[in-house]
Design goal:
With 589 residues, the protein is of the alpha/beta class. Strands 1-8-7-3-4-5-6-2 form an eight-stranded mixed β-sheet. An eight-stranded parallel β-sheet has the order 15-14-13-12-11-10-9-16. Strand 12, helix 14 and strand 13 form a beta-alpha-beta unit. It is globular, with a radius of gyration of 25 Å.
Length: 589
């Protein structure tokens, strides 16, 4: 048994599929006939030419969109691609070992990784990242697709067994391109409850465990596995007795989940009739469809950065507009809160350049990037305002820390509206603008922020990690990123009280919103707008239907008097069992 962090509840028994590396290959593949070698070399050379042409176009477009300095990264990639040493190494492996072009590229990548691993200077680490990007780009042309896992690669030894994805880490761009694959569980070596693997798993309602150190050394593709996403346990090649026991729990979990879907058309309200809005957090059109299926009342958070992370260059205004329009038209009630780009930290794109930062989550990220690249934000604001004509759209700005930042943003929005009017471009005049409260400084100047914004969204994921000064994706300190914490609830009460005083709409769109124990307290604290992964909406709706407003208020009052997370957990676990013993399986331990 391996232990990690349970990041998406539930139990699944299935077969492992390993995601090996940047090119998604587990072992070298050879050509069936040596006579194929010349054609394979020509195939590789053609992919290089296509990648080169693509990079040349990127240099021009990015320079035009963001300026010459932003295009320098692609100039560097062109230089790497033109390196005769790189190309000759691939040619040599195809000729001497009869490897396929993709396998030869993969082998060359591994050799470079081994060489660079011995060098400690940051400069060379950055060059390795650039090299990875170039090789992945050529590899994508070889496979004629952008997915990190080739079609047909996910195959179990038993067609009746679900597939469990096992990886060292799932990157943001991978998380999105894995979205259509038949995955029933996810296990990663690194990452926490708000990693991209966790977000992908929760959006699909599948069990997942992160932070499982050494799992890649102990599992092979095709191994039978058990993933317990609530307890954070992973069993590799379990004995028959354990397998049978977990299969029973798996059947019970999925039966309960399916039965909860029946409440999709019922309003979300407490036992005594107090209404709540249960909204969805989405990344793409597939998530919008899932939100419809489970009965969400709208989209409380549309993460636009995933469009950029899966795009080979800067999406232009027309492309963004069309994508946002489709999201709005496919969302429940056509009500969507669109968050502007939240890049930085672990979500980077090459056209913004790479900066070596000791702590990127506290560095150049999110709204801070826009102040250095205002054209990027203005283009996105224009596209969102135009998409607002197709539904009830709001615009949300993340990582706002000071009133000065908010005023700068508001000025940019006003100037963009004025320019659209002057140009005669149709857009929605009634798009509201809001601030995401996820930095403690914003909490302590909340009254000033409320005077200059239309609504508030609390991003509890980042707020927690900043409040406790612990990287949420670092397994060694992940225990500190505890939502059932006295400090967290007291800070959240400050924000909710301030919004209540001014009548400002407030939504909580972090993972706390979909966790039964914390949702119970938040409802008792006065929160009425919850935004969560679509898969959790039926659970929270069922939870609220089993509690009165007065009960929830008593629970919240008691929690705010407790001193430790253990006390809060114990108390809320007992209350949850009183309300509905079956819902406990949908919460993290």
């Amino acid at each position: 048994m391996h232990n990690g962090i349970g990041v998406s509840p539930g139990v699944v028994v299935g077969v492992a599929y390993r995601v090996e590396s940047v090119l998604g290959l587990s072992e070298p593949k050879t050509l069936e006939n040596p006579a194929q070698i010349p054609a394979e070399i020509a195939y590789f050379d053609r992919a290089v030419e296509e990648a080169e042409s693509e990079l040349e176009g990127l240099v021009q477009r990015v320079a035009q969109e963001l300026g010459p300095s932003a295009a320098e990264i692609f100039q560097t990639h062109l230089q790497i691609l033109g390196d005769p040493g790189l190309l000759s190494r691939v040619h040599s492996l195809i000729e001497k070992q009869s490897l396929t072009a993709l396998s030869a590229l993969h082998q060359v990548m591994n050799r470079y990784v081994a060489q660079f691993a011995r060098i400690e200077q940051d400069y060379f680490r950055e060059r390795l990242n650039d090299l990875r990007d170039v090789i992945l780009r050529v590899g994508s042309h070889l496979t004629r697709k952008k997915e990190p896992v080739p079609d047909g690669a996910i195959e179990s030894h038993d067609d009746n067994e679900p597939v469990i994805l096992v990886a060292h880490e799932i990157l943001p761009s991978q998380a999105m391109s894995l979205g259509d694959l038949p995955i029933a569980g996810i296990v990663t070596e690194v990452g926490g409850s708000t990693s991209h693997a966790a977000i992908l798993a929760r959006s699909r309602g599948i069990p997942a465990v992160s932070g499982v150190e050494g799992i890649m050394n102990d599992v092979a593709s095709g191994d039978l596995m058990v993933v317990d996403g609530r307890e954070g346990h992973v069993l590799v090649r379990p004995e028959q007795e354990a397998t049978m026991a977990y299969r029973k729990v798996q059947r019970e979990f999925f039966h309960l989940k399916d039965s909860l879907i029946s409440n999709r058309d019922e309003p979300a309200r407490s036992l005594d009739g107090t209404r709540a809005e249960l909204l969805a957090n989405i990344n793409n059109l597939a998530d919008a469809d899932a939100a419809h299926t489970v009965g969400a009342s709208g989209v409380g958070l549309f993460r636009t950065e995933y469009l950029f992370l899966t795009h080979h260059d800067v999406p232009g205004e027309e492309e963004q507009y069309e994508y946002y329009r489709q999201i709005v038209l496919n969302s429940p009630g056509q009500t969507v809160t669109i968050r502007t780009l939240d890049l930085g930290g672990d979500k980077t794109v090459p056209y913004l350049g790479r900066r070596s930062e000791p702590n990127p989550f506290m560095g150049w990220r999110s709204i801070r990037i826009f102040f250095e690249n205002p054209k990027l934000l203005i283009t996105q604001i224009r596209a969102i305002l135009r998409a607002g004509r197709h539904g009830k759209v709001s615009m949300l700005f993340p990582m706002v820390t000071t009133l000065e930042e908010l005023r700068k943003i508001n000025k940019m929005v006003k100037e963009t509206r004025d320019n659209l009017r002057r140009e005669g471009v149709l857009f929605a005049e009634d798009v509201k603008t809001g601030v995401m409260v996820e930095v403690p400084a914003a909490v302590f100047c909340i009254d000033a922020l409320l005077r200059e914004t239309d609504f508030i969204s609390i991003g509890s994921n980042d707020l927690i990690q900043y409040l406790v000064a612990a990287d949420r994706d670092n397994p060694k300190v992940a225990y500190l990123c505890e939502p059932l914490s006295p400090a967290i609830f007291r800070v959240l009460q400050m924000v909710l009280d301030a919004c209540a005083r001014t009548g400002t709409p407030v939504t909580l769109c972090g993972e706390m919103a979909g966790q039964p124990r914390s949702a119970l307290v938040l409802f008792g604290m006065g929160l009425r707008r919850f935004s969560m992964s679509p898969a959790f909406i039926p659970t929270v709706k069922n939870l609220l239907a089993g509690v009165t407003t007065a009960q929830a208020e008593r629970f919240a009052h008691h929690v705010l008097q407790l001193s430790t997370s253990d006390e809060i957990r114990s108390y809320l676990t007992a209350r949850l069992r009183e309300i509905s013993s079956t819902l406990e399986i949908f919460d993290s331990v």
